[in-house]
Amino acid sequence: MLSATVNTRLLKKVIKASNAFLNETRVRISEEGIAIRAVDAGNICLTDIFIPKEDFEAFNAKEGVIGINVSRLNDILKAVKDDFVEIECNKELKLKAGKTIYSLALIDPSSLKAEPKLPVLDLKAETIVEGSEFKNAVLMVSKVADNVVFSAEENRFQMIAEGDIEDIRIELDGNSRE
């Protein structure tokens, strides 16, 4: 289904970003690249990641969907020090880094939450924030209130929450535009 070689730093970023909100997910493999589109267990955060085949050193794939344990894969990738990882995926996921080969069992994708459809939104601002920073901000906000307001003014992106007796305002670093 998949035979590829990818820069380890890129793979680590993608898996770490996915793991910020997901423990397990479906991965859609196509001739154009690899995609992860999933919603966290609380139906709060959407993860939508696509790695085009051009970002791989080598890429050969057939259409298919697999299920992976993102947390486990993230743990394994933390130990990889090589520049490139070779990926083989048929009945299991094999990662080869240097002289080490990791084998991970795949999860039946039908047992995982279906890929969500993307809503059509006309947003007036956008920002790109590191997944771990956003996850930490959501955790901090959840200590004060059950809902949050996102604000983008003068290229500043903020999360604002007001509770019964407390409030919190978090300015997130990122690339913003109005």
Indicate the CATH architecture of the largest domain.
Answer: Box
The gross shape turns out to be: elongated
**Distance between the amino and carboxyl termini:** 41 Å
What's the domain count? Answer: 2
Structure in a nutshell:
The protein folds into 2 domains: 2-111, Proliferating Cell Nuclear Antigen, CATH 3.70.10.10; 126-177, no CATH class. 19% of the residues lie in helices and 44% in strands. The chain contains 3 helices and 14 strands.
Features:
single chain, 178 residues, alpha+beta, Proliferating Cell Nuclear Antigen, five-stranded antiparallel sheet, four-stranded antiparallel sheet, 3 helices
Overall description:
The protein has 178 residues and is of the alpha+beta class. The protein folds into two domains: 2-111, Box (Proliferating Cell Nuclear Antigen); 126-177, no CATH class. Helix content is 19%, strand content 44%. It is built from three helices and 14 strands. It has helices spanning 8-19, 70-78, 131-142; strands at residues 2-7, 24-30, 33-39, 46-52, 58-61, 64-69, 84-89, 92-97, 100-105, 126-128, 149-153, 156-162, 167-172, 175-177. A five-stranded antiparallel sheet has the order 5-1-7-8-9. Strand 11 and strand 12 (156-162) form a beta hairpin. Helix 1 crosses helix 2. The N and C termini lie far apart (41 Å).
What's the layout of helices and strands?
Elements: E1 2-7, H1 8-19, E2 24-30, E3 33-39, E4 46-52, E5 58-61, E6 64-69, H2 70-78, E7 84-89, E8 92-97, E9 100-105, E10 126-128, H3 131-142, E11 149-153, E12 156-162, E13 167-172, E14 175-177
Antiparallel strand pairs: 1-5, 1-7, 2-3, 2-6, 3-4, 7-8, 8-9, 10-14, 11-12, 12-13
